[in-house]
Amino acid sequence: MLVLASAALARADDGDLLLNDFEGADFGDWKTEGTAFGPGAAHGTLPGQMEVTGFLGKGLANSFHGGDGPTGKLTSPEFTIERDYLTFLIGGGGYQGKTCMNLLVGEDVVLTATGPKTEPGGSEFLNWENWDVKKYRSKKAVIQIVDDASGDWGHINVDQISQSNTPAKKKPAPPIRTQPAPAPENAREVAITGKYLIFPISNKWQRGRMTIRIGDQWVHNLDCDFPTEKEAIDWWGWLDMAEYQGKTALISTKATPEIAAMIESSNQLRHLQPLYDEALRPQFHISQMRGWNNDPNGMCYFECAEMFEMKDDKVTLRVLVDRPMFEAVGGGGACYKNSARRDMGKPLGKISLTAQGGTLTVESLEAHKMTSTWKNK
Ligand SMILES: [Ca+2]
Ligand SMILES: [Ca+2]
Known about the structure:
Elements: H1 2-14, E1 17-20, E2 31-34, E3 52-53, E4 61-62, E5 72-75, E6 79-80, E7 85-92, E8 99-105, E9 108-114, E10 124-125, E11 127-132, E12 140-147, E13 156-164, E14 188-191, E15 196-201, E16 206-214, E17 217-226, E18 235-240, E19 248-253, H2 257-260, E20 264-266, E21 317-321, E22 325-330, E23 335-340
Bound molecules: calcium ion (CA) (2 copies).
């Protein structure tokens, strides 16, 4: 009976001594410096941080408060080393002396550990580390958790610091969750045999991108509304490649491979549907010197050869003049012509009417000053 009791006592003396599991409301008797560790243990992942896993319970020391920028330090109260090992969970930055946990005996850092991470990516997983502290048994020691880093992975995660006679076994790291692979760029070489490069477009767009290189030169880089599949093509866009004929283009396309493969060099534009079926759609457009143009050129021929219908040798015109635009409407509105004014903002000096091969008489003229429909203008 006596033997059994003494064995039980020995086991109790041999048990783990918890130094901190970071489950408290604050850091208790641990001293805090800086802001990186926040006011107390983090409950897992902090704002802007990848998911933190591998800690025990609900809390851990996590120096990602405010991101990687802030720095700080947590220092334990002094304790006596009474077991063979210090075991703890650690993750985060892998910078010696910068993102680390230190064991101090006297004034000296006798052992140090960092997280695993110095490269972008990876995970915030905490895994077990052990310090063999047999030779420091009975000595007084202090633990510091240090964040003296502000760049990528400039933080440290620690949890469950214990004294134990049994080293903790590392856990298998969980698989790293990654973003879905980006759409393939479908780089391919296309011999430029024709004046145009033609490519399929969908009105129910899926925004993609096409970049075209000739040798080292980047000749086109544009967003395209590519269809998701062949059946969804609404029309064909084109690029002028005349100056590159005879060369080979390297075309990268953020689109499905099927669609990317349909981009081709051609001397013909391609239409799937009558995009324009107005008989008199203008072929010439007027652009303003600056600002944007709604392009309301409407239906007329170039030079207005048949623009204003004559009735009994008379033409009826309505002319609208405003700051950026001069517009003339013939007859009942069937004919229309406009012109951008290049002296935008200046008063119009005069309007002149001329006739070719004859004389022109103004039979009647009415002028109306129009006011803005905008209030207070
Ligand atoms: Ca914990
Ligand atoms: Ca930091």
